Amino acid sequence: MTSYQRFMSALSGQKPDQVPVMVFNRDWAMKQVGFTVNDMMNGVERFVFAQYHCAIEFGYDAVQDPHGISAESEALGCTLRIEEGFPLTVIDHPIRDYEKDLSGLKVLDPYRDGRLPSILEMVRRLKELCAGSFVVNPYIQAPFRNAAMLRGNDVYKDLSRNRDHLVQLLEKTLISQIAYGNALVNAGADVLVISDPTSSGDVVSRAYWLELGHEYVKKLVKYLRPTGVKIYLHICGDNNDRLETFADLDLDGISFGEKVDLEAARNTLGDRTCIIGNVGTANLLNSSPEAIADESRMCIEKAGKNGSFILCSGCSISKDCPPENIRAMVSTASEYKY
Amino acid sequence: MIIIKELEELAILVKDGEEEESAELAERIIVTLEPQKIIQTLTATMRELGILFEKREIFVPELLLASDALLAVMKVVEPHLQQNRDQVRTVVLGTVAGDLHEIGKNIVSVVLKAEGFNVIDLGTNVVAHEFVSAAVKNRASIVGLSTLMTTTMHVQREVIERLVAEKIRERFKVIVGGAPVSQKWADQIGADVYCEDAFKGAAYINSLP
User: Is CATH 3.20.20.210 the classification given to domain A3-334?
Assistant: First the structure.
């Protein structure tokens, strides 16, 4: 099987030839080929090269658009801090006052706004290079994440104190996410990852997750389904108390952070839901390749013995993650033939 | 009895995150009550919230609202405090350089204030030398380093290396915290302790001789 076939087979709930691997890698791939953050922000071809080169060099199965993660926020009016040596961060939140600011919030035009046209170009180029070999897997923010970036930390207080306005914001962001998701698919995305760290099980209760985070992921998936693209969710934190809530989102897969017990996730979600995870990112930064191989084996034993599983980092890895640790993940996964 | 009832009411208002009502009640009762009694109520309330947070009965949104209410009460009470701040432990606290996440750090700040510590909150994106100079300048005994991201954990190590280089490491207890951080990481970089949340941090500081 090619990497593409292996990954798509697992995401379809089947058994590929062996366990597929992916890594949420943001600026790590850029570092591997010697490019800087500024190179990353200003050069589509450099970015494409970094992603493609690392997939070949390290042997994992999917490429991504790592700085796409903040691009929707920027296109909707957030300011990004772009600084060498540090991850991209949203530093300004345009919806300070719902009464004043919400009506001015536009719906994204992915072909014109902010850096989105260059992200779409990157996805197109990745698809040209990778078609049939590696999976092209860009990011799309979950509506609650998008709302949180626009609103800042106050979004968490809005859950109980400003619910009507928050719902209005989510409805607006949902339309933007649908527009952007369609544009990513048109550009060549094979798989979309909906990213929702803001609904982390460490941060919001099960009730709030169900009422807003979950509700709007479900809506987004529903509206993107007609494109035919495969979709999985990445969610951070301890979600062990709400594993069954991921079953009715109509997702092809779920990527859990390292606090989730993958065995419990497998038992709750059944054999045909692709589970993606969850080698600890701090361990990937600080542990030895042998320890990473052990942790990878444990993940596979818990959730990947019968297919429908992708070995993955629990979240974005540090740019300083030793390359040997990524090799250890890939090499361990390759030992698991189906 | 009326006073006890009002303190109980204040605790409920703070727990429920009722910022304005908490401050109004504090304004009313500070006239007849020792400020220390109100601080004790706030401390007990935050400890109770800590237990609920640990049991996953409340989460960050509830803590943020309660923190706002608590700070509103503190604002009312502080001008009435006669405490000698020299006798209080000083904690220098911040989120390390490269990281702008502040929710966790802010909750730590509020909980430590509720425990009566003198908290110097340096904010987010704080470089190593700023932690060190603030700790020295404020004669702190505790340095708290927060980070939410694997990508910025290394700055926690840099702060400790700087304290060692300046030969003042033993003057401070260094607490590290944040989502990717662990006791293993604390041991690896020479921190004194990893604390999982604000309440464990407060308990650690209270346990110091």
Answer: yes
